[in-house]
């Protein structure tokens, strides 16, 4: 997948060609690879004006929690979809610490996989997994790849920019977006709020987009018991953490088990 210069939008080439230590465009904008193997394509002025993404504590807690396999049934469904749509190149939008990329590569070692996230801490963790062919620090609102270079884009609980996604997908490209179904983590939310508000459809932007047509909607759900430190890791990886008072956080830390629905909505779109 050809990466794009964030300064002038031209294609970035490996430099030197054989043992690249940087990427460079024809206008001589140059971006060095970090020692971990990722490249930072977020321009300084954009970094200041946009959110920094999830912080390191959230990323680490998400990694600890996801590595325990609680979301394996979601992974299995996504792998089936990836196989069904037989993609050439897959882009993991807002890949975070790389759990899904790692899980996909275990079941599909030949997958050509690139990922990016606005949070450098997440990209550093993802790089350690050594499964992405390309990794960049970049924004979902300025996707760091050239137009028509992605066969399948995946956005799992990550920000969506319909125009940008349509730009990078090939004409036959597919977008898979994953978000919470209405009752996702209901009992965790009830630990924080007096009344649970069911999640609303998070895909209105795509459903009403002139760039995409919806082709399939799936819902996968399991009631799961989460135990011990995994409960607090789960809290910390979600926005509920910011709403939980110190007292509620301490109460959640003391829980030995929490049974909650894990419920995901998966939507597939093609280019309009
Ligand atoms: C809920 S996490 C999901 C991470 C990963 N997809 C997963 O499911 O484990 C949302 C991710 O989006 C990233 N993010 C937030 N704003 C972003 C933006 N403007 N561009 C790219 N990534 C962004 C966060 O840093 C975070 O890693």
From TrEMBL:
Keywords: Metal-binding, Methyltransferase, S-adenosyl-L-methionine, Transferase, Zinc. InterPro entries: Methyltransf_25, RlmA_N, rRNA_m1G-MeTrfase_A_prd, SAM-dependent_MTases_sf. It comes from Marinagarivorans cellulosilyticus. This is 23S rRNA (Guanine745-N1)-methyltransferase. The lineage of its organism: Bacteria, Pseudomonadati, Pseudomonadota, Gammaproteobacteria, Cellvibrionales. It comes from the Bacteria. The keyword Transferase applies. Residues 90-169 form the Methyltransferase domain. It is an enzyme of class 2 (transferase).
């Amino acid at each position: 997948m050809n990466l794009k210069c964030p300064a002038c939008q031209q294609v970035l080439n490996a430099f030197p060609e054989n043992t690249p230590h940087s990427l460079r465009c024809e206008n001589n904008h140059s971006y060095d690879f970090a020692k971990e193997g990722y490249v930072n394509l977020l321009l300084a002025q954009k970094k200041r004006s946009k959110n920094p993404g999830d912080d390191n504590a959230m990323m680490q807690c998400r990694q600890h929690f996801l590595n325990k396999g609680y979301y394996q049934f979601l992974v299995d469904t996504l792998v089936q979809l990836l196989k069904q749509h037989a993609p050439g190149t897959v882009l993991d939008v807002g890949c975070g610490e790389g759990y899904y990329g790692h899980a996909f590569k275990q079941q599909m070692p030949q997958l050509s996989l690139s990922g990016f996230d606005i949070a450098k801490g997440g990209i550093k963790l993802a790089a350690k997994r050594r499964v992405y062919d390309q990794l960049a620090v970049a924004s979902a609102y300025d996707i760091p790849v050239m137009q028509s270079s992605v066969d399948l884009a995946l956005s799992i609980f990550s920000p969506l920019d319909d125009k940008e996604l349509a730009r990078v997908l090939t004409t036959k490209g597919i977008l898979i977006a994953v978000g919470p179904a209405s009752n996702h983590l209901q009992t965790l939310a009830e630990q924080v709020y007096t009344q649970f508000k069911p999640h609303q459809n998070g895909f209105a932007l795509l459903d009403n987009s002139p760039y995409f047509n919806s082709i399939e909607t799936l819902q996968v759900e399991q009631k799961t018991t989460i135990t011990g430190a995994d409960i607090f890791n789960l809290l910390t990886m979600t926005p509920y953490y910011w709403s939980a008072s110190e007292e509620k956080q301490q109460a959640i830390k003391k829980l030995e088990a929490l049974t909650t629905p894990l419920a995901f909505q998966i939507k597939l779109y093609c280019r309009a």
